[in-house]
Write a structure and sequence with these properties.
- Strand 1, helix 1 and strand 2 form a beta-alpha-beta unit.
- The two termini are about 30 Å apart.
- The protein is globular and about 65 Å long.
- It has about 425 residues and is α/β, with parallel strands linked by helices.
- It is about 35% helix and about 30% strand.
- The chain has 13 helices and 19 strands.
- Helix 1 packs parallel to helix 10.
- The strands form 3 sheets. Strands 3, 4, 5, 6, 7, 13, 14, 15, 16 and 17 form a 10-stranded mixed β-sheet that branches.
Amino acid sequence: MSKTVVIVGAGIVGVSTAIWLQRAGHAVTLIDRKGPGEGTSHGNGGVLASAALVPVPTPGLWKRAPRMLLDPREPLFLKWGYLPRLLPWLMRYMGEATAEGVAKRARAILPIIGDSLNDHIALSKGTGAEHFVVPSDYLYVYDTHKDYLADGATWQVRRDAGFDCEVMDGPAFHAYDPSFGPAYQCAVRQKDHGRISDPGAYVKALAAHVETEGGRILRGDVTDIARENGRVTGVRVSGEHLACDAVVLAAGAWSAGLARQLGVKVPMESERGYHLELWEPSVMPRAPVMIASGKFVATPMDGRLRLAGIVEFGGLDAPASKAPFALLENNIRKAIPGITWKRRVEWMGHRPSMSDSLPMIGAVPGAQGVFAGFGHDHVGLTGGPKTGRLLAQLISGTTPNIDLAPYSPSRFR
């Protein structure tokens, strides 16, 4: 039976959900406070990181984190005045920094991101957005082979999940991509990955297809979800009531407030991510590259090279810091000596980071007709299409072919 569905949030998860719902015969309305592709989906690293199974909290992070916070050359920042508010979430988050926590997250996230390139190809087919999806390798670059070996546990997780990893030392790496200078002497090549050549434009093109197919796109703030006898009847957006049969919360780091109104306390924080775009660079890497020592990605995009990464904790309201941008520029100058560019663009956004590094996907308990689709931390673009498809199946009454228990919105009750 066809339903009228309101989707709160028009990033990659929201537009993916809308497209798969339309293909199943439902009527959709996308609501976003800024418009499609203007938030985190605009500023991500652009990599379809199918093998990104290992979360940020790993064994030993307790010991490394204090030193990282005090060293401006490290990719971890904190607005210290925010620490008291952050602390309860941080204790739960760091509690997952164990071998068991890593293994649990890797098993659970694999079905969401493990076939990302094909998920994006299937999503974008027939939408006019196909050309943004580019098959590519994805490289992790290390200073030395010894540094790669020190990261061995991470690579074992990926190999155990079936991902092929080709190690290239010295001459082999520089023959593969001569862009990089002598500071880096080892790379791990992951095949069968992909990139999005302009993430913001990609999400906008997908949203335009939703409109072409009869969907509505509204710009505004959803402040309440109306219910009668426990079932959703509509949403309140910018002071007006909009009736619907189902609601999807896909507003990323801004989803927790609405979930709280429904009685679901979400242990989620904003991981403030930064990117620096270098337009018309003199050198362009062959494929997306993760510089392991700097924890940032350099991704070729249309007309520019995007440097994305850095983790900063400071909440949703504080302005961007200057130090992360300086660090990104210093790091790319080290990686690609002599690189120049015509202009640079700075951006900061908010990754929705759950305390267990797993998204919320599924029916919200106690609110019949409300579904969650948020909390993907660093893999929102990668896992957006699969998340959208799963949500469309649930709303359509179809049982997905994967176990959704690890992502259940009721798991923190």
